[in-house]
Amino acid sequence: MFIFSALAPEIEALSLRAKVSHSWLDHEILLVTPDAAALRWEMNEWQRRLPFESLRGMAWELAGKMMQFSASSLVDRLTPFSSIPHAELEVVKERLDALHLRKFDVQEIEREYKSNLVALEAAVDSFASFINSEAPTEASVRRGWTQVRERAAALKVLFASGRIPDGIVLP
Amino acid sequence: MNLYVHNHAAGEPNHWVSRLSRILSTSELLVVESPRTSPKLRPAICFVHSKREEEQAQWAEFAINSPACRVVFCSGTAGGAIFLKRRWANDLANVYAMACDGSTFINQRLSRFLSYAHDGGDPGALFDEEAFPEYSIAAYLLEKAEINVPTEFIAAAAGERLPGEQSTADVLKRYFPSVI
Question: Which of A4, B49, B136, B137 could form a disulfide with B171 if both were Cys (CB 3.0 to 4.6 A apart)?
């Protein structure tokens, strides 16, 4: 039995984490330098499509799934546990969740994550509105984008520091 | 056999895919960092590190049309590999997903991989050879939850060790290196 079939269906938080941390924060924001942002503006790319919308919803979904990083997520997915009575497995899950909460202050992490996400969204909205409604200059586009990147970098810290784990955390 | 690395982390020199690319470049094989599929890639082993589903789909299609090529979807985490395997590799014989994290691959398997690339052989054995150590993990979790571990779990877990691994913790380090 390989990990892949053993753990299907996928643990949603792991997929969401990858999409938010890499696809959204890294590829759509942090790897886009102010120079590149100014170039996109010159090419009218920002005006055609702001590349943020699809992943915003996922970022909020992740906020509600922080407990899926607990090892209790593995219990229903590992074949050997099928030989153990259901009631006993529920106890195992409860205890694993308790151990997870001892290691991770999930409520606090959620609070910080949401707070940084709100700040990033505000910066993104402000940038979008600025691009579409004012008459921006290259310098102002750079400044606006720099603010978006600063907010994204603050959110990224939660991922890079491991406070939002990059996989299932064993107790 | 050529090697291609589709590296979305090319701007991050310390990322393990960038390290993999650099290390492969020191071998005698031709290594190219390529962002997209191309007929010129054939035959090749393609390491694909991309979080973008549409790019992954292009590589899967490339694998279907290029039976002489191998496409290896890479993820730095066991969870990511699960996702990639489930999405692409279960149904395609020449598509693989890294079953271990990238650093483990570099540290433990790269020399065997390069032997394969030089001499031929089945790379699938390299990527999928390990059964996921389900009993080791199950035994570990039961122990942590202070539930008696069935003796058959203990025996099966011992059978999941690779040479050099002394304990269940050693087995788990392969998959959960940052948390043990």
Answer: B136
